[in-house]
Amino acid sequence: MKHGIAKYGLKAKRKRTNSQGSKKNIKTKAIEDQKQETGVTEWLKKEEEDNILREFDLNYHFGPCVGIGRLARWKRAYSLGLKPPETVLQILERRSSEVEESIFEKYKNLI
């Protein structure tokens, strides 16, 4: 096989970089990949938590969800012995800004 010709008769292109530059590029790319994976993981975790909260909002077993915040609804259901999911309480404790929201808060302005 002749120099410069790859398998199937196509010419191979070679990138010319010095050894220092390629090591830096590899490290930088690895760091960027890790940041991207972390971002995706965080996004997936948030989506999963949103789904859990949405299911809690739409489950009428724990009482009506219109006009009452999620935490207040969870506490009311717990005091009535309805056994609301502990995961909902854990999510609400982490997300203090969404304690007073329900799924219908997003659509309040449409009415």
TrEMBL record:
Residues 1-29 are annotated as: Disordered. One of its GO terms (biological process) is DNA synthesis involved in DNA repair. GO terms for molecular function: DNA-directed DNA polymerase activity. This is DNA polymerase delta subunit 4. GO terms for cellular component: delta DNA polymerase complex. It comes from Galdieria partita. Transmembrane segments: none annotated. Residues 1-17 have a biased composition (Basic residues). The lineage of its organism: Eukaryota, Rhodophyta, Bangiophyceae, Galdieriales, Galdieriaceae. Pfam families: DNA_pol_delta_4 (PF04081).
